[in-house]
Amino acid sequence: MALQFHYLQLLYFFACLLSLSLAVGTSKLPPFHGSRIWRTTLFFIALWSGSDGLLKLFADFSAKQILLRLSYIGVMGTTISWSYFVLVFGNCGHLIGKKLKVLLLVIPSVSFLGVMTFSWHPLFYTSLELVQRNGLWALERRYGPLFWVWAVYAYAIILSSSILLIQAMVRFPKQYKSQISLILAAALLPTIPNVLYLTGINFMSPYDPSSLFFALSGLLIGMSILKFRFFDVTPVAYHAVFQDMKSGVLVLDSRKIVLDINPVAERIFAVTHLKAIGQSLEKLSDEAGELIMDDYSDTAEKKLNGRLYEISSAPLVTPGSSKEGLIIHFHDITALKETEKKLSDANKQLKEIAGTDALTGLLNRRNFFEQAAREFSRSRRSGSSFTMILIDLDNFKAVNDNMGHLAGDDVLRVTAESLVELSRSGDIVGRYGGDEFIIMPFETDEDHALELAKRYVSEIPLRIRGVSEIPVTLSIGIILHDGSPDTSLEDVFDRADTAMYASKAAGKNQASLWTPEMNKKTIKGTL
Predict the structure, then answer these.
(1) 3-state SS string over 8-44?
(2) Predicted local distance difference test score (pLDDT) of residue 30
(3) CATH number of the domain that 20 lies in?
(4) Domain containing 180: what range?
(5) Helices (H) and strands (E) in the chain — how many of each?
(6) How much of the chain, in percent, has pLDDT values that exceed 70?
(7) What 3-state DSSP class applies to 436?
(8) How far apart are CA 323 and CA 88, in angstroms?
């Protein structure tokens, strides 16, 4: 097999070794955003440049055909993987859906089959001849329609990814722009010599210099990775946090122009990413002023499109510590607030249940005593009146014994409903226990307390007759606290109880006002 030597061949082999070294070297670094596709690109560049070097080394036509096929595997792989890496690093990969990715692989797949079988048809090459130029044997190629389809496709995807990268430069903060500028330059660097080669203006005739320039681009980025820590600050955080976070984020410049918006914020403001970028905040929201807090430690709650959000903000600061914009964060707290309300309502309901008598719906004894204690303390501080009315149902035991407990329950319910209805709105009514009820009238003097008790005595027995054949009356005791500091709340209840027994001793169905002359033991002894 004939070989031919030229010093330019060393450049291709050096480019191949350089690309492989960069792939191995970067594989030892911590994973960065797009690291796998980056190493894949370097392997394709190595295949391309190595195959081109061997293509120039061998003078045999059959060997050149085999190496030409290997070279095009590198060409197509480099073009696709490089463009995809540019998209991934520039955080534009999400713009290409699964279906579009499949469609974008159709032309490379057809072109790959075409170049692998070019000896059987004129679609990729119309002719392929071994010619001697400058003392070297080279392949003279005339391109067919499938080649030009591939060429247009390759330039289109490189140009499209470069445009998206430029958009990313506009969007990203300054600390990303130098990195993306370098990638953009590295992406466009091999394009110029490739265009010159295809148009016949080749400074390395008869060799194609494209793979060398791709290796040079890889070297630029590789040096930045290994020496200048190129990927220490990369859009990986932007992709993983900004794009995928469950809260909405707006990035504004100092003029309140939208620099970036994540998918959640797009849904909040019902706007697409492309329409939002470059727009003023006022165009996104009528309440723009309310979305910006002067104090970055503060948060605010704001309803947007039917949802409730907790809004916070932070300054967008450059490495030089100068404020260049604002980051606004929107956290959806709708479900949280709904849960809090349900819990609050449930707690309130539980408190009501715990403090309510199950049969009558009145305050139970414990809850009534708690409220009475507060009112008693307030009256002692302010010097206002404090009145207590204790009621016992006469003949209630006879109802239970003769008519049953269900009838007794009906009597208790009717009594409770009547006490609430006949009392004033500010009066507190409770069930003391068994067939006893207790009322705490609000700021009532002696005359009004007696008038209220007489109303109970005259009307409630009549109402009870609707549910009981056995007459039931009321014995009532009334106590008006004299304001004496020596009198406790327990003393007040005890005196009300004494007055109630005085009513029973006097014949029942009446009200008695407690006086100091009443003796509870004497009264009970007479019953």
Answers:
(1) HHHHHHHHHHHHHHHHHHHHCCCCCCCHHHHHHHHHH
(2) 57
(3) 1.20.1070.10
(4) 8-236
(5) 20, 12
(6) 73
(7) strand
(8) 28
Beta bridge partners of 280: 257
| Residue 355: φ, ψ to 5° | -100, 10
In whole angstroms, how far apart are CA 68 and each of 54, 147, 194, 197, 330? 9, 14, 16, 16, 56
pLDDT for 173: 53
Tell how strand 510-513 and strand 473-480 pair up: parallel
Global confidence as pTM: 0.47
Convert the pLDDT of each residue in 191-244 to its tens digit. Answer: 766 666 666 666 566 566 666 666 676 666 666 655 545 554 444 455 556 666
Q: Are residues 225 and 267 in the same domain?
A: no
The C-alpha atoms of residue 400 and residue 424 are separated, in whole angstroms, by 30
Q: CB under 8 Å to 504, separation ≥6 — which residues?
A: 392, 394, 475, 527
**CA–CA separation, 269 vs 527, rounded Å?**
79
Give the DSSP letter of residue 389.
E
Q: Which residue, among 474, 473, 428, 477, has the nearest Cα to 449 in the 3D structure?
A: 477
Examine residue 93 and state whether it is found in any structural domain, yes or no.
yes
15 and 55 Cβ atoms separated by less than 8 Å: no
**Nearest by Cα to 137 from 64, 227, 224, 59:** 59
Residue 281 CA to its chain's centroid (Å): 21
Residue 124, C-beta contacts closer than 8 angstroms, at least 6 positions apart: 111, 114, 115, 118, 143, 144, 146, 147
- Give the residues across from 240 on adjacent strands: none
Give residue for tokens 């560049």. Answer: 45
The amino acid present at 18, given as its one-letter code, is L
Claim to verify: residue 406 and residue 522 sit in the same structural domain = yes
* 86 backbone dihedrals φ, ψ, rounded to 5°: -60, -45
Are 321 and 225 in a shared domain? no
**Residue 39: phi, psi to the nearest 5?**
-70, -35
Instruction: Please say which residue of 236, 264, 287 terminates a domain.
Output: 236
Cα 515 from chain centroid (whole Å): 68
Averaged pLDDT, 70-74: 88
